[in-house]
Amino acid sequence: GALLKDRTWIASFLFPQFLFLRLYDRVCADAPAAEIEALRSELEPALAFFDSKELAVYYDLLGVVALDLHDETRYFKQALRYDPESFLIRLHMAMNAYFRQRLLEADRHVAVCKTLSFQVGSLFRFVQVASLEAQIHMDLGDYETAITCLKNLINEGKSLDPVLYQGCLSILAFAYFRKNDMPAALQTAKEALRIGAAKPVLHFILVFAAFRLNDPCFAVRVHTAKDALCLTQDSDPFDTFMPWNALLDGIVAWKDENFPAAISLLEQVRQAFAMDPLRVCVLEWLVELAQAQKDFALALQYQKELAALRSGQMR
After folding, report:
1. Structure pTM?
2. What is the pLDDT of residues 238-253, one digit of tens each?
3. Among the listed ranges 4-13, 50-59, 199-208, which one has the minimum average pLDDT value?
4. How many CB atoms lie within 10 A of CB 155?
5. Residue 77 lies in a domain
6. Residue numbers of the domain that contains 281
7. Residue 303: CATH number of its domain
8. pLDDT at 208 (0 to 100)
9. 56-66 per-position pLDDT tens digit
10. What whole-number distance in Å separates Cα of residue 291 and Cα of residue 297?
């Protein structure tokens, strides 16, 4: 910011790099897409003046602001070709592969991130990588490794930033949820909310655990979750896009044994997040619901889709 405001510095600065600095500034400021695109158009003819590390950062920035997952992947891959030793680009590649549900690919990038994290020397980055690794293990079905990793991080809670601590506890609640250990998921989600982790997924875990445990507080938890969604949904792009109400209403319909309604509502969730890690859970529930209403052809259809998704995860 100081450089961009210093007219003397601007006058002496090489023009392509000055444009590059402006792009970096606008991306960090979450500027409108039209403004970013205008800067990108100005920069394209000047890319010949950039060295490999500058090109890597340039394509990484374009990946960060990309609105389409395909474009994001393409830009991050270009960035990685120019600087394969960049911690941040490797982390972006890991997260991109994770959301595309290419879990082994994500794990390979995380392994490089772990090595590079010692050069970065940041506790925040170390916890971020360890948390992502735990989520990958979780989605691969290795719940014990994920839980052990998260517990080790949480045991260091006194030295963690409160936000990092809340994040680790929230992921641990989700790990118990994925393991189908509903009592542990319930208690961990409660604790995460108690210390201030305002995440809709925690409220959903409380609702789903109450459903599975036949908890008499189920209806109260549904109302509490919907109230919480009104307060927290604008805080995270994921939470804004995720159809939480359809997910909650689907569980309510399931509890009422209204299987067609439950399937219809969970189908909305599945379509909204075609490449999200929650897709595995939703497909598993849809198989269970189709079997409950004795629609075995539909159950087989969901099982085939689940098998194809799991096959893709191993790439």
Report:
1. 0.84
2. 556 678 889 999 999 9
3. 4-13
4. 11
5. no
6. 242-315
7. 1.25.40
8. 96
9. 999 999 999 99
10. 9
CA distances (Å), 141 to each of 89, 280, 282, 314, in order?
27, 11, 15, 12
Whether 271 maps to a domain, the answer reads: yes
Query: What does the pLDDT average to over 33-49?
Result: 89
Q: Count CB neighbours of 35 within 10 A.
A: 14
Tell me the two tokens of residue 70.
């395909």
Number of structural domains the chain divides into:
1
Query: Which candidate, 43, 15, 14, 10, places its Cα nearest to that of 27?
Result: 43
Residue 10 token pair:
């601007």
Between the alpha carbon of residue 273 and those of residues 49, 69, 226, 278, the distances in Å are 40, 12, 20, 8
DSSP label of 46: G
Instruction: Tell me whether residue 308 is in a domain.
Output: yes
Q: Residue 141 is encoded by which pair of tokens?
A: 């079905």
Q: Are 257 and 237 in contact (CB under 8 A)?
A: no
Q: Does a structural domain hold residue 225?
A: no
Residue indicated by tokens 């972006």: 92
Total Cβ atoms within 10 A of residue 1: 9
